[in-house]
Amino acid sequence: MPKAGRSTSSSLPSPAPSWSDSTLPFQTLLASTGSFGNTYVPPATPLTTQSSADRSPGAIEGDSLDAVHRAGAHVPECTHLGQAKPSTLQRYRTLVKYSLFQKYQHRFLAGFQANQRDCAPPKGVRLQKLEAKRDAILARIPTPQCATCRRSFGQLLVCLHCDFTGCWSNGHLRAHQKANKHYLAVELGTLAVYCARCRDYVYSHPWEAMLRQERLRIYHRLCQLAEPRTRRLPLAECLAPETNNHDSTGADGALPGPCDGIRGLRNLGSTCFMNVVLQAFVHNPLLRAHFLSDPHSANRCTREACIACQMDQLYGQVFSGETTPYGPSGFLRAMWQSSTELAGYAQQDAHEFFITALNQIHMGLCGDDHTFNCPCAVHQTFAGQLQSTVTCLSCGHQAVANDPLLDVSLDLRPHTKRTRAEPLAASDDGPHSLLDCLHRFTAAESLDAQGYMCGSCGSACQAATKQLLFKSLPPVLSFQLKRFEHHSSASKIETFIRVPSELDMSPFTTRRAAGGNPRNAESASPSPPHPACHYQLFAVINHEGTLETGHYTMFARHRKQWFRFDDHLVTLASLSDVLQAKA
Amino acid sequence: MAQDAVADRVKVAVEQRLVESGEKERLQEILRAHLIESGWKDHVKAQCRDIIRARGAANSSVEQLMREVAPDARANIPENVKRTLLTRLKTYLMENIQDLDATPPSQP
Ligand SMILES: [Zn+2]
Ligand SMILES: [Zn+2]
Ligand SMILES: [Zn+2]
Ligand SMILES: [Zn+2]
Ligand SMILES: [Zn+2]
Ligand SMILES: [Zn+2]
Ligand SMILES: [Zn+2]
């Protein structure tokens, strides 16, 4: 079951500078900042595919890579943060400490008072002394207010170049920045950094790492105050991984850890069929962009056994920076609960799981049954349309119908039915490549004599052909090679099928085929593939072994590098490994 | 004119009192919870996303986005959320207003 994603990489910059992707500021700006400790947004993987995710599906016409270019790939990133002096970062740290303390000072107070009741102050310290100390701290913490209008409500930002505090709503901060050519400022509530030169909230890895450290530090102190007798990890240990990470990437600052987004999945007892599909989801650039940037909010979700919530969790786990294998037991449990078909299905077929999971994710995101033009991540990623045309050979009448598709199942059996207008001189031992399969899939096929009643000439036609073509292509195309046969006795077709690393789908679309045989059009204009029909392989799922004792593994591309996933084992792979595998 | 100046000073003093006492943080927490619960936050977020999507991320600025979204967002705050917050604010001010009246801001 190979999958191909629309090729965009040729036009996109390398994934490294994705930190200041402009989709992020808004997200964090509007994200709930209430529960600190949870607000750390995992560093986004290249969100550069976002632009193609945002397009309406199936726009074959009038849609080019240039549009993708403009839509988001070349958003200028803020270089001002990186060029800022170390003292500016130091000032940011001071402000972060100040703001966090200011924000939680009353919780500190409450914890302090609560503790007086049930635990004595440390030996040798008089209570008054502690209180005096606390009051002194509080007195040193001034209430922030706009230097111009004295407001202390609303968004207040502190200049990072001087001591000015200004409000956003009356424009006093912007006025100050303009007058003094000061451009970096911190918003006190969210601690986001605003760059006036970029006119946007901006990010950089060292700054984010520092913010996270300070948040952890104060969270630790709050916990310590509230429950002084609870044993917990020393703070240094909580901070350690982040510090290491920061050091190792210190020089260029913006590079996320190399293993980010790569995590093996534990086998929970014959669950390799699930693990391979989950890895394919994780490495699907569009689904990933969706779930990392616009998480299905699990706290608002009331669905029981919601697969969308599980997806959210899966991405969180894979991008947590943790490298030990993860056991997706929640996913499995939710799938058993929500899908009766799967529970009764003993075969544990990856494709079956794939389709069920897609439907369940859609249900979790949308909560309804309608799937046509559905805005959910699943349908925006996988939904396309097939057009089937039945032509009556007696009167020439054509009956056209459109069918939605989420994936394409390709037949591997040698032809049994006689076909007309066979575009390839197909060998009778079946197809040998994905292209063969697609040519067969879209070839006009003669219908059974009694299978079709012509709507125009009314007679049961003796001769009619049926042809399937892609009316609209989804951003991510998923193919299933039907290796399993469940007819009289279950068996597996072992033919090796060549899968290309890049695929041009234009010969199989209605657009290319319009006005005649696709072959004619092909020979008439050997134009380069239309960008919207150009796909790049990013994941291949393989079934190894026999039907009964088989094992699923998969290959996935991650930042231009191929990896082989075998449950908890993750190894490097080359493109040739991938193409030689028997998908 | 002078009336306005006094009103402004009282407003500033009240705001400061709310912040210093931690009441603002508590009110904000309540507001945040209500807005998330009622779906207001998701709605505003979706609105922002749609605007950015339509215009392209490169052509979007925070200021512009806030200008466009704020009126609608403000109007869409559920009535019961407003009422809850107002009641709480009133109660707080009733309990704390006396000494505020007694000591009017001294600075000119
Ligand atoms: Zn900047
Ligand atoms: Zn102001
Ligand atoms: Zn300044
Ligand atoms: Zn859910
Ligand atoms: Zn859907
Ligand atoms: Zn829907
Ligand atoms: Zn007919």
From TrEMBL, chain A:
SUPFAM superfamilies in the cross-refs: Cysteine proteinases (SSF54001), RING/U-box (SSF57850)
EC number of the protein: 3.4.19.12
InterPro entries for this protein: Papain-like_cys_pep_sf, Peptidase_C19_UCH, Ub_carboxyl-term_hydrolase, USP, USP_CS, Znf_RING/FYVE/PHD, Znf_UBP
One GO-annotated biological process of the protein: proteolysis
Compositionally biased tracts (Low complexity): 7-22
Highest taxon of source: Eukaryota
Compartments where found: Nucleus
Gene Ontology cellular component terms for the protein in this record: nucleus
UniProt cross-references to Gene3D superfamilies, sorted A to Z: Cysteine proteinases (3.90.70.10), Zinc/RING finger domain, C3HC4 (zinc finger) (3.30.40.10)
Keywords: Hydrolase, Metal-binding, Nucleus, Protease, Thiol protease, Transcription, Transcription regulation, Ubl conjugation pathway, Zinc, Zinc-finger
Primary enzyme class: hydrolase
Limits of the USP domain: 263-583
Name under which the protein is recorded: Ubiquitin carboxyl-terminal hydrolase
UniProtKB/TrEMBL annotation, chain B:
GO cellular component: a single term: transcription export complex 2
Principal location: nucleus
Keyword set, alphabetical order: Activator, Chromatin regulator, Cytoplasm, mRNA transport, Nucleus, Protein transport, Transcription, Transcription regulation, Translocation, Transport
Localization of this protein: Nucleus, Nucleoplasm; Cytoplasm, P-body
GO molecular function, one term: transcription coactivator activity
Statement: the UniProt record of this protein carries the keyword Transcription: yes
UniProt GO BP: chromatin organization; mRNA export from nucleus; protein transport; transcription elongation by RNA polymerase II
Keyword Transport attached: yes
PANTHER family hit by this protein: ENHANCER OF YELLOW 2 TRANSCRIPTION FACTOR
Family according to the record: Belongs to the ENY2 family.
Entry-linked HAMAP family: ENY2_Sus1
Known function: Involved in mRNA export coupled transcription activation by association with both the TREX-2 and the SAGA complexes. At the promoters, SAGA is required for recruitment of the basal transcription machinery. It influences RNA polymerase II transcriptional activity through different activities such as TBP interaction and promoter selectivity, interaction with transcription activators, and chromatin modification through histone acetylation and deubiquitination.
Subunit structure: Component of the nuclear pore complex (NPC)-associated TREX-2 complex (transcription and export complex 2), composed of at least SUS1, SAC3, THP1, SEM1, and CDC31. TREX-2 contains 2 SUS1 chains. The TREX-2 complex interacts with the nucleoporin NUP1. Component of the 1.8 MDa SAGA transcription coactivator-HAT complex. SAGA is built of 5 distinct domains with specialized functions. Within the SAGA complex, SUS1, SGF11, SGF73 and UBP8 form an additional subcomplex of SAGA called the DUB module (deubiquitination module). Interacts directly with THP1, SAC3, SGF11, and with the RNA polymerase II.
Protein name: Transcription and mRNA export factor SUS1
Taxonomy of the source species: Eukaryota, Fungi, Fungi incertae sedis, Zoopagomycota, Kickxellomycotina
